[in-house]
Write a structure and sequence with these properties.
By secondary structure, the chain is α+β, with helices and mostly antiparallel strands. The protein has two domains: about 30 residues; about 90 residues, YaeB-like fold (2-Layer Sandwich). It is built from four helices and six strands; from the N terminus they run H-H-E-H-H-E-E-E-E-E. Strands 1, 2, 3, 4, 5 and 6 form a six-stranded mixed beta sheet that branches. The longest helix is centred in the first third of the chain and has 23 residues. This is DUF4258 domain-containing protein. InterPro entries: DUF4258. Keywords: Membrane, Transmembrane, Transmembrane helix.
Length: about 130
């Protein structure tokens, strides 16, 4: 069998294999969160999200928005040295991120089994 014939069989098998893999995984909500930071942020995003009165008052000031909070919960960095502390039946996480105006902030979220609660929002100094 010549090289181009073997190559043609290889390509046919590759295309069929890709088709079956795509068909098997399409429509499924699959996430590959291997690192602790990604797992914590994904867990917080998938739960119902509530605010304390203090967080609501800070959100109403206008320097940070609900979209900024969602962005921080997607791209933020969890500070594990000061996080994963039991608090009121849940675990407290400190997440560092930035607003759309590039202001560095730190949010404190308590993660319960059935919900996540935003406790405080703090501006941090730029380095």
């Amino acid at each position: 069998m010549k090289f181009y014939q073997r190559f043609a069989y290889y390509l046919i098998g590759l295309v069929l294999g890709c088709f079956f893999v795509a068909a098997m995984w399409s429509g499924k909500d699959v996430r590959c969160n291997y690192f602790p930071n990604a797992r914590v942020l994904n867990d917080l995003r998938t739960k119902p999200f509530h605010h304390t009165k203090e967080a609501d008052s800070l959100l109403s000031q206008g320097w940070i928005s609900e979209a900024d909070i969602k962005n921080i919960l997607t791209y933020g960095d969890v500070d594990f040295d000061r996080s994963n502390i039991k608090e009121g039946g849940g675990k407290k996480y400190l997440i560092e991120g930035q607003t759309a105006a590039k202001q560095k902030v730190e949010i404190e979220v308590v993660n319960f089994e059935d919900k996540a609660v935003l406790k405080t929002i703090r501006k941090t100094k730029s380095e």
